[in-house]
Amino acid sequence: MKPPLLLIGQGSNDDADSAEFGRFVHRLRCRLDEHSAEVSGGYLERATPRLSDSVASLVARGHHRLVALPLSLTRVSDDFPAALALEQERHPTLMYDYGRPLGPDPRVLAVLAERLKDAAAEIVEPVAERPRLRVVDSAYVDEPTRIEPGETAVVLVGEGSTDPVANAEIHRVSRLFWETHAYDFMTVETAFVSVTPPGVPGGLERCRRLGAKRVIVVPYLLFAGGMLEKVWAQALAYGAGHPDLDIRCAEVIGDCEPLADVVIDRYEEALQLVH
User: Fold this and answer.
1) Could you tell me whether strands 65-70 and 39-43 are parallel, antiparallel, or unpaired per DSSP bridges?
2) Strands, DSSP E only, in the chain?
3) Across the chain, how many H-helices and E-strands are there?
4) Cα–Cα distance between 39 and 3 in angstroms, integer?
5) Pairing of β 5-9 and β 188-192
6) Which of 38, 75, 119, 213 has a beta carbon 3.0–4.6 Å from 151's, enabling a disulfide?
7) Which of 154, 177, 158 lies closest to 107, judged by CA?
8) Mean pLDDT of 195-214
9) What are the residues facing 210 on neighbouring strands?
């Protein structure tokens, strides 16, 4: 039997994020069950299940070696290895192999491209149940104006960090995404949800000044939750002051098969490095 896979999340107080994390863990359990490998997940802070509880449960079931994989799109903070070192102190027989973060894997970028395509194809409705697209009053719209990709800009939004290397990675992802999936568009600008500039309004303003008629905000986030709501709120607030600019917000990467494929590859890679 292969060592179990332990997915590690940073953790938040957001129930939606926790629920989607749980669904993704379940998806991986179904995928790896045929390989006789258990899958567990735990958070470093603020949410359940906590990492310490998940590790204790695995050890209680007789597992003393595991593959720990940070469920992160960017450079992993020192919190992850520190948390695992603490678990080794609690369980002296425990050994683990560390999997690489997901990063800008081509399959992740392909999912972002699908989210971008879906947002670009949407027809703006007079009333929106949620701020996926900018709300437009149909009384002022006779017929939708066709906007070409060359008149459309993209703002790729990362979470934002105090770590300049992690922030620089988001800029790198924006360039990779533009060259591999969005080269027909005017540009792909970078913005952040919080902590570091530019924020979403700053990214939108940059696109407006470049002459974009439409801007599609693409969240570089794993799961829906509070971070996504902040992206929507910032985009809507900016859109309220710029009614001539068509602003659309795409979905997050989310619980999906391509993301599971990347995680499984990271798991198998970690196992191969041991042998």
Assistant:
1) unpaired
2) 5-9, 39-43, 65-70, 95-98, 152-158, 188-192, 214-219, 246-249
3) 8, 8
4) 9
5) unpaired
6) 213
7) 177
8) 96
9) none
| pLDDT at residue 261, rounded to an integer | 97
Q: Could you tell me how many residues make up the chain?
A: 275
**Which of 55-59, 143-147, 164-168, 200-204 is least confident?**
143-147
Q: What is the mean pLDDT of residues 5-34?
A: 84
Of 274, 251, 213, 260, nearest to 117 by C-alpha is 251
Name the strands in the sheet holding 214-219, side by side, starting at the edge strand that comes first in the sequence: 188-192, 152-158, 214-219, 246-249
Question: Is residue 138 scored above 80 in pLDDT?
Answer: no
**String of b and e for 90-118 (b: at least 16 CB within 10 Å)?**
ebeebebbbbbbbebbebbbebbeebbee
- Given a contact cutoff of 8 angstroms between Cβ atoms, the answer to whether 72 and 104 are in contact is no
Token pair recorded at residue 197: 């500039």
The SS3 assignment for 168 reads helix
Question: Do the Cβ atoms of 87 and 57 come closer than 8 Å?
Answer: no
Do residues 28 and 263 make contact, with C-beta atoms less than 8 angstroms apart?
Answer: yes
62 secondary structure, DSSP code: T
Q: What is the pTM of this model?
A: 0.88
